[in-house]
Design a protein that fits this description.
InterPro entries: Dimeric_a/b-barrel, YCII. It is built from three helices and six strands, in the order E-H-H-E-E-E-E-H-E. By secondary structure, it is α+β, with helices and mostly antiparallel strands. It has a single domain, classed as Dimeric alpha+beta barrel (Alpha-Beta Plaits, 2-Layer Sandwich). The strands form two sheets. The protein has a four-stranded antiparallel beta sheet with strand order 2-5-1-6. Strands 3-4 form a two-stranded antiparallel ribbon. Strand 3 and strand 4 form a beta hairpin.
Length: 118
């Protein structure tokens, strides 16, 4: 079964971290990625650019309209994700709990089963 492990970021929380804490996040993700590769469960991981660099596309009157992003009026944004292949949800939760973000209040780690992929 495939699961998306989403990382939800509050920029204010990241900005408040020390350089050492930020480095710890980075190295923690590196160890996490390697562990998933070693177990054969990692399919893909991606981290999009900051939402301020996004655009929102909608269609009005049959014409595309492009506006500066982000779309959501929220302080949190999707900071990245891991796509994993695990036997069941409980197994997907095990490695997700090792993501360093999970231990920092204001950062979120969400595990969601993928219902469709091509």
């Amino acid at each position: 079964m495939k699961f998306l492990i989403g990382l939800h970021i509050d920029p204010a929380v990241l900005d408040a971290l020390t350089d050492e804490e930020k480095a710890g996040l980075g190295s923690g993700h590196g160890r996490f990625i390697q562990a998933l590769k070693d177990s054969g469960e990692l399919i893909l991981t991606q981290a999009p650019a900051d939402p301020s660099q996004s655009v929102v596309v909608s269609v009005r009157g049959g014409q595309p309209v492009v506006t500066d992003g982000p779309f959501l009026a929220a302080k949190e944004f999707l900071g990245g994700f891991y796509l994993v292949d695990c036997e069941h949800k409980e197994r997907a939760v095990e490695p997700a709990a090792r993501i360093p973000d999970a231990a920092i209040p204001g950062l979120g780690v969400e595990v969601r089963q993928v219902l469709f992929s091509d």
